[in-house]
Amino acid sequence: MSRLRRMAAPLVLAVGGGLFAAAPAAEAAPAACDPTSTPYTYVVTYDPGTRASAVDKELAAKCGTKVAYYAEIGVAIASSRNADFQQKIGVYRAYSGGKDVASQGATASARSLGAVRTLEDTRSVAAAGDLSAQQWDMKAIHAPEANKIYQGSRAVTVGVLDSGIEATHPALKAAVDPAASAGCVTGAPDLSPASWAPTTSDHGTHVAGTIAGKDPAAGFTGIAPGVRLASVKVVNDSGYIFPESAVCGFVWAARHGFAVTNNSYYIDPGLFYCPKQPGDAAAFEAVRRAVRFSTQRGVLNVAAAGNDNLDTTKPESDPNRPHPVDSSCGILPKAIDGVVNVSSVGYAGTKSSFSNYGQIDVTAPGGDFVQTPPAGEGPACPLSTVAGGQYGSKCGTSMASPHAAGVAALLASRFRGIPPQLLAGLLEGEADVVQCAATETACTGPAKNNTYYGHGLVNALDAVR
């Protein structure tokens, strides 16, 4: 049944033994919609299967316009200039990340995009020459040995939900599939190449190279260079990933048969979304439905654990915005059931100083400034593709996640059509155990499933043999 309010039945009164229908009370004329204020984009939840015409009718009546509607999951993306649009729809049914950011002011907005995102800036650009010796991260997961056996199938597509991929990069031009790519920043898919190309960030380009890059001239090879990549742009030019963009990305992946997606981000303005709070409830539910829909359609979603060095299962506060948090709150999309949560290790193989922990499925190389490789083995942060056809290093769980996604792509290539739950099980089962060290007092749990490393370090070689 639609969440749209049904008309109340007319009141019937008994008078002198007869029944008479009372005249309905006159309704106040609706207030005029605001035609001049800044428009903001909202996610709005409906019962799955609600007709588009019913959605259009409610949005129009409450001063909104439809940007997109995903009937399979009952989520609309709407735009409105009205400051009270969320209240008109219902505070547990509608949410705008953009309006939330604007209401916090410049200081809070800068904080939400601050040190955690800056960590993942390019740290160094590699000089020309053979880069193979500098890819310590690939050696750590036995990717070079795996590449000699199997490089993945062109029938497998990995969606990079990120800031866009530089499709002309020498290591990526053979992998990126324009037909499977889309811009999702507005919440509605845009197929034009400009919509999914990077503009202000090469974050997605770096992620893509780790998964499937290959440039023999530079001596650079990713984990699964035989698979296809889809650029699904969810990061806007200000660096934000709002709920509507993520919803669009996951539904796009589901509708286009991706085997794996990589999600090296958290949904802004974050950090935690709480399903019992106004606004948050709509965002959490919209993303949950989109993730579940993609999982049901055969997609394994892999996500970065985050760079706050905190136990995400025991949140005490939200560093990005003021609201109460508890154990029911989570970082999106990684808090959604079925998403593979990836922590980061540095060159020494221990948890990166910045990596979040708690509910972890696997770990992978993301670098660490305090774990420096010996001379000649590359920078402390993993080397991959960056803007302008170059190669550079970035640190973060954002760099760890695509290592896991790349190994998952190899497994998906070997076992075509395998359900995502079984694919995740294989990824975890093939991982190399990483035990909690005696000095890692916050690390708890058994060797094969602990709060720092989950089931262990992903292993590309085991995935192909």
From TrEMBL:
The protein's name: Serine protease
Pfam family, one: Peptidase_S8
PANTHER family documented for this protein: CEREVISIN-RELATED, PEPTIDASE S8
Chain residue ranges for the region called Disordered: 306-326
Record InterPro entries: Peptidase_S8/S53_dom, Peptidase_S8/S53_dom_sf, Peptidase_S8_Asp-AS, Peptidase_S8_His-AS, Peptidase_S8_Ser-AS, Peptidase_S8_subtilisin-like, Peptidase_S8_subtilisin-rel
Domain of life: Bacteria
Leader sequence residues: 1-28
Keywords noted in UniProt: Hydrolase, Protease, Serine protease, Signal
Organism: Amycolatopsis rifamycinica
Family to which this protein belongs: Belongs to the peptidase S8 family.
Composition skew (Basic and acidic residues), residue ranges: 311-324
Residues annotated as the enzyme's active site: 162, 203, 398
Example GO biological process: proteolysis
Record has Signal as a keyword: yes
GO MF annotations in UniProt: serine-type endopeptidase activity
Membrane-spanning intervals of the chain: none
